[in-house]
Amino acid sequence: MAWQVLEDAGEDVIVTKQEITSKIHATESQFTRLKSYIRDHITMEKGKAFLAFREGYLFTTDPTKIAESVGWRLRRINTELRRLLTGWINPLGEDVANYEVLTMYQEEIGHMLRLSERIRSLGTSMPQPVKTTKSRRRRRTAAPAT
Fold first, then answer.
1. What is the pTM of this model?
2. Coil, strand, or helix at residue 75?
3. Which burial class, exposed, middle or buried, applies to 3 when counting CB atoms under 10 A from its CB (0-12, 13-18, 19+)?
């Protein structure tokens, strides 16, 4: 039903969470589960990406919107990985070496962060993200005297 709300709006049209939940009478928990279901099943079937995008949700095949969303999500994941190290593992200092699982996590998270940096640097060859366009006030100029 949620996908139908998006299809009714049209491709590349942002639909707010409130609009979706009110139209299908879904709770917050149901909305969370339906987003997962759409991403896990419906997107592959329809051949379209489902994105949380600028204050709402949409489906699209536009590579610039997809690239912008992937970049945003990777930055969030990168931040979370860094916090796992700085807030949970690294405060133990040299004692980390006494715990095989923590040593493994420290090494693997470090590897993921290096990979993330590589992806970020390669991202410059990706399509440019969508830029927000604000209407600019145009100054009216006096018409030339003839």
1. 0.71
2. helix
3. buried
